[in-house]
Amino acid sequence: MRKLFKFHGGVHPPTHKAESTGTPIVQAALPSKLVIPLHQHVGNRAVPTIQVGERVLKGQIIGRPEGRLSSAVHASTSGTVNAIDMQLVAHHSGLPDLCVTIVPDGKDEWIEHSGVDYKQTPHTELRHILRNAGVVGLGGAVFPSDMKSYSNKHKIKTLVLNGAECEPYITCDDLLMRERASDILRGAEILRELLYAEEVLVGIEDNKPEAIAAMQQAVLDDGHAHMEVIAVPTLYPGGGAKQLIRVLTGIEVAAGVRSTEKGVQCFNVATAYCVWRAIKYGEPLLSRIVTVTGNVERAQNYEVLLGTPVGELVAQSGSKPDTNRHIMGGPMMGVDLPSGAVGITKATNCIIEGSDKLFPPPPPALPCIRCARCAEVCPAELQPQELYWFAKAKDFGKTQEYDLFDCIECGACAYVCPSQIPLVQYYRFAKSEIWQREQEAQSAEVARERHEFRQLRIEREKQEKAERLAQKEKAALAAKPAAPAPAPAPTPINPDADPDDTLQMRIDAAVFRAKEQVATVLPKNISNLTPEQQAKIAEIEARRAQFHERASDAGADDESSKPS
Amino acid sequence: MISALWVMIGISLLLGAVLGYSAIKFKVEGNPLVEKIDAVLPQTQCGQCGFPGCMPYAEAIAKGEADINKCPPGGEEGIRKLAELLGVEYKPFGEGAGPREKSVAFIDEQTCIGCTLCLQACPVDAIVGAAKQMHTIIASECTGCELCVPPCPVDCIAMLPIGEDISNWKWRYPTIPLVQVTAQ
Amino acid sequence: MWSSPFITNPTSVSQIMLRVLIALIPGIALYVWYFGPAILVSITLASITALAAEAVMLKLRDRPLKPFLSDNSALITAWLLALSIPALAPWWLVVVGTAFGIVIAKHLYGGLGNNPFNPAMVGYAVLIISFPSHMTHWLTPNMLGHVDLSFADQLNYMFNGVLPAGSTLDAVTMATPLDTLKTQLHLGLSVDNIRNMPIYGHLAGKGSEMVALGFAIGGIYLIVTRIINWHIPVVYLATLFVVAGIFHLADPVHYVAPMFHWFSGAAMLGAFYIYTDPVGGPTTNSGRLIYAAGAAILTYLIRTFGGFPDGIAFAALLMNICVPLIDIWTQPKVFGKKGGSK
């Protein structure tokens, strides 16, 4: 019997899972259009590779990955590209983002695709396949799996497969595990291979006995050594990656620390399934399982094409007329969608149709009574009441002192607050303010450097001009016939002294004055330059020297002397 | 009575000596004030404060020659930080001198004549170009200081406000209604 | 804008406060059984004053009346204060104490959740300092045999300040068992002799020991239903027991047994209802241990060596002062950052 650990806190909201587990997964009907956002993953937005009016095949890339952290986006079915423009997307802000709208032609015609034998393929190529197949974390974090399955310097002992699904209402992973357990485990095997992990632990909450049984059967049937299916106690938020790692392995991964540094990596079961489809069959990520539940006639799980408008999907479940919101995700951490026109994305695990009866609007919050029930339930062992007071007072330094960024925004604190204070909203506000300030500070720093370099540049130009002028005058002087050597003249300029000498002294004085002027106006940071700044300056000097050489070779310069 | 007086004098002399010694022995050499002030300023180098750049303004504040409410790009937040740093009262912006919406310059390339006057004006060298060549703004480096707008002889530079899009959207400060307004 | 979470656990502030009021009922019932119904009059009077004072202050502060009046926190202040002062207290004593607590100790600091000091204890402190003699005239328990005042006479005294002809206040009331103990010790009697006086029962003063037991039962109900945490009551009572026990073992002639301290005065009331007030207490569990231990030590010291009959209120106020520092000192380590540098 494997020893399990506990994480601090946690709550037991009513699970509401039975509504949608009565029927198997059903294919959702083909929608009238697909609204596919190009930014469905963490990292850079995908760059569109098709034009409006073009016909695309099922599985064809419509957005290629950009930069190191990015993923591809594909056409979920064959059809015509109707538009590439800003459409409403599933985001808290309700603001639009770049989307590709495809009108299906009903033929569902696949593009040419084939899989590889993962045992014979080098890992870099496997990851390349995952990147171009658009495989990202389907647990909701949508992190590109090609980057996540790469462990550079850290030895990975344990690969955790997250089948916990702790949030109420959501059952998509449950059904996926019941119906497609073998493929999930085969995908997990590929991930284990990529990470060189020793063991695979599948964590499933104990309120899913059928899924546990199906996965355990698959482990036995397919002979997966090194894999173990473990039932973890049902406790929200036990499905959080850090919490599940803690329960299964006892390791606590702090914020800002990657779990790979502790020898663990965690993937969702649906991601493992997609990895298998991508590698074995060459199928990119085109669809996912979505639970439709809440204020509907028939709550169930659908296999939905990405980009299906939410409104069309929930209609298939018989969304009731008094529905007043669509929540993407669960009731604890979900996003209230701006409209039913939003397309299903890779992050959509569930759509809950909300109503005033299901989710009554909260009463106005009372003041905090310092009961600290929030601190009792926080899985990150923070002090939510302190964070609340500081965020309310906009004292952002203090919020960071109390580890604001360790907060996983699970909502357990707001769930138990007797005063019904919307605590998570304060933390989100504080986090976005801090991010914006850091960004502003960075831009200010860059602007300051540019400004200082500009001043350096201007002074340098002035100095060089003065020197060039001095040398020009000197050269002009040397070209004149030599005068008889005068007696050493006293320091003050004697009008009877030799004119050439006087001239020379005047030139010297002018040069000295120019140098003095330069010295006084020169900004204080010309000296003590950092090596990087010096290197930059040296680089620029070299380029300018080249330019001047070329210029004087071409005879464009009318000066007879080269600059120093 | 006299003895009490002597005791009090003795104590005050002792404490004074301790304080004086500590002030000298444990003096902390911190950052010069000017650099601290400059670190608070937004580095837009726009000159709206009346000084040619942020560092000169910082120097003027440190000398006590300038008020702390002269910097619109720093916003109200900036004034509060300066007030806290200097230990003075917060002072709001003067009439009509408040912060404006953040914007980025944009050159209308059809109209630009390549005179380089705006290049010379930009305090952070965010304009690329050369004599008789097309000028263009490097949008990522532009601080919105608007110093390039007056010198342009053909008035081809416009300031475009940076709107809110999905990448720079921020959560709003939560406001709790004291009375719940419901349609009942 | 409403963002996640969209569901909440419905144990609201008013429900928590209501449970506390319910938990007080066994103690109050025993109080009425042993001392007569005068206490109910005090409680009612205090409740009315508290709600009225709160309504006036909310209006002055431009706050909505309904959510704050219905959160029952003013009622708790009223009941705790009424239970801490003699049942025979004149009406104006009750009103002044309650009003002071609600207006000055609660609303002038910002209302619910913002008061650093427990309002009931502030009210008690003001009364004991300003009207010390009124605060020493407690009712005698029924079982002592003589009926001093009928209920009608009690009401007459409370509202009109008039006693029946021939009675004096000293004749018809008594000091608390704790107070009597202290006075007799000063007079030179030993603890054993004092404990044999007729006003003392098995554990402490007759009647009041049963009332304390009633409060303890209510307190255990609160712990079982998770309205309050076990930390403060358990640590408070344990520390009180240990400190009293040490003194008692060292010198049984001059220091009374620990159980006596548990069941006299407002120790049980304090342990389960006063010190567990979330607003004035620390927010960390280890902080609560320090808070409760400090309060117990202060209670014992004030009771034994101080000038006041009972130390609960002042111990509460003194520990309330320490709470911000206790909070800072006892911040626990965050997930993943224990064991080693942050």
Structural commentary:
The complex is a heterotrimer of chains A (564), B (184) and C (342). By secondary structure, chain A is α/β, with parallel strands linked by helices. Chain A contains 15 helices and 17 strands. Chain A has two domains: 18-354, NADH-ubiquinone oxidoreductase 51kDa subunit (Rossmann fold, 3-Layer(aba) Sandwich); 374-478, no CATH class. In chain A, helix 3 (172-179) packs parallel to helix 5 and helix 13 (423-479) packs antiparallel against helix 14 (499-521). The termini of chain A are far apart. Among the domains of chain B are: 32-86, 3-methyladenine DNA Glycosylase II, Chain A, domain 3; 101-163, Alpha-Beta Plaits (2-Layer Sandwich), CATH 3.30.70. In chain B, the strands form two sheets. Chain B has a two-stranded antiparallel ribbon. A two-stranded antiparallel ribbon of chain B has the order 2-3. In chain B, strand 2 (127-128) and strand 3 form a beta hairpin. Chain B is elongated, with a radius of gyration of 26 Å. Chain C has 342 residues and is an all-alpha fold. Chain C is globular and about 70 Å long. The model of chain C has no long low-confidence stretch (mean pLDDT 89). The interface between A and C is large, with 58 and 36 residues.
Please give the oligomerization state of what you see. Answer: heterotrimer
How do the SSEs of chain C run, as a string of H and E?
HHHHHHHHHHHHHHHH
Content of β-strand of chain C:
under 5%
Class derived from helix and strand content of chain A: alpha/beta
Distance between the termini of chain C: 35 Å
Number of extended strands of chain C: 0
Largest sheet of chain A: 6 strands, mixed
The total beta strand count of chain A reads 17
Mean pLDDT of chain C, as a whole number?
89
Q: What is the CATH C-level name of the largest domain in chain A? A: Alpha Beta
Biggest interface and residues each: A-C, 58 and 36 residues
- Give the amount of beta strand of chain A, in percent: 5-15%
What tags apply to this protein structure?
heterotrimer, A: 564 residues, alpha/beta, Rossmann fold, 2 domains, 6-stranded mixed sheet, 4-stranded antiparallel sheet, 15 helices, 15% strand, globular, disordered C terminus, C: 342 residues, mainly alpha, 16 helices
Question: What's the SSE blueprint?
Answer:
The complex is a heterotrimer of chains A (564), B (184) and C (342).
Chain A: E1 26-27, E2 34-37, E3 47-48, E4 55-56, E5 61-64, E6 73-74, E7 79-88, E8 96-104, H1 123-132, H2 145-148, E9 158-163, H3 172-179, H4 181-195, E10 199-205, H5 209-221, E11 227-232, H6 241-249, E12 264-268, H7 269-281, E13 287-294, E14 300-305, H8 310-315, E15 325-328, E16 335-336, E17 350-354, H9 373-377, H10 384-392, H11 396-401, H12 412-416, H13 423-479, H14 499-521, H15 531-553
Parallel strand pairs in A: 1-14, 9-10, 9-12, 10-11, 13-17
Antiparallel strand pairs in A: 2-8, 3-5, 4-7, 5-6, 7-8, 13-14, 15-16, 15-17
Helix pairs in contact in A: 3-5, 4-7, 10-13, 13-14
Chain B: H1 2-25, H2 33-40, H3 54-63, H4 75-86, E1 103-107, H5 117-121, E2 127-128, E3 136-137, E4 157-161
Antiparallel strand pairs in B: 1-4, 2-3
Helix pairs in contact in B: 2-3
Chain C: H1 13-35, H2 38-60, H3 65-69, H4 73-84, H5 91-106, H6 119-130, H7 151-160, H8 169-172, H9 177-187, H10 191-195, H11 208-224, H12 231-250, H13 258-263, H14 267-274, H15 285-305, H16 312-329
